[in-house]
Amino acid sequence: MARKFLYLIAFIIVIVVGGRLALTFYPDTMTRIAMTPSARFEPQPALQANAYADPKLWFARPGMTGPDPVQWQPEGMLPEGAKEDVAVFFVHPTSYLKKAHWNAPLDDPQARQIGEVTVRANASVFAQAAEVWAPRYRQATFGAFLSDDPAARQAHDLAYADVADAFDAFVAAQPPGRGIVLAGHSQGSFIIKRLLKEKVAGTPLARRIIAAYVIGWVVDTARDLPAMGLPACAAPAQTGCVISFLSFTDDADTAMMRDAYERFANAAGAPRGVPHYLCSNPLTGRIGGSAPASANLGGIVPDLKMEHARVTPGLVGASCNADGTLRIGAGSDMGPFVLPGGNYHVYDYALYWTNLKRDFAVRAAAWQTAH
Prior knowledge:
This protein is of the alpha/beta class and about 375 residues long.
């Protein structure tokens, strides 16, 4: 299973690298030409009201047959005993990079295959939860994050509408009072931010949020957190709070990334101002600061043949930089697919896999003790 998983990991990384290379090496105009759909946005009807009752629209959820991608574990990892009586809603990152459509068709086999890989690699952090739900959705294509075309906003709205429907189905299936974790990566985290703003903040559900893992997407402490209705996680056992970071080497130039996020945020109507990005330290469970590689309980690393995954303690350290990004030192050899310019975005979860598992377990236990 590990071999199959890692071959798929290699496949997704190659595809993602293609998009990231364009973003790194080409000016904005050329990048948009290379990655943005030239076709008009295709208005699509909302999914049927009970669409997410169909197991086929989920990568993971209770009651599904066949292997559960969330339960994937790297070599040598043993089951950790009783499950935490909490539920996790996980939204996968972009797995559709084609230009044929602004949104991924639900029947696109490549997007589905890559999406399942990302669920295995990232959502396995939450394998000790009693339930993990991970929906499929008509995600916005990669180019929708590079374009100022109104179609890009429409594409994001369509993706969000699907996930919002899935979230409603997830919440309705939970016992009253059960603690909930929201988690995502990249586009998934972008959507989680909006879910918090529109579905959780100011509602009784907010009191049930254990934590929101908004990883691989910027969270502005002044502009985003108030609307999301939750503070940043300032202590390891704190609950009802937000974790967010983006991983780069110490010498990485993040100006283009930050400019892109700001341009996109402003296009979305966010007020302008000096950005204050949340940098959660995955090795301490706190905001900001530094921790040495010795504090890393183990990242997951594929070997050069992409045949096995191993847990590697002390893989990298973690230091929050003044620009709000997480710096990982010189970086670790994760294989030939690290993104240009010291960008470890693909590996945000993998670099700190064991610590994130521990972070989740500690916060889940703290929430259950308090409730």
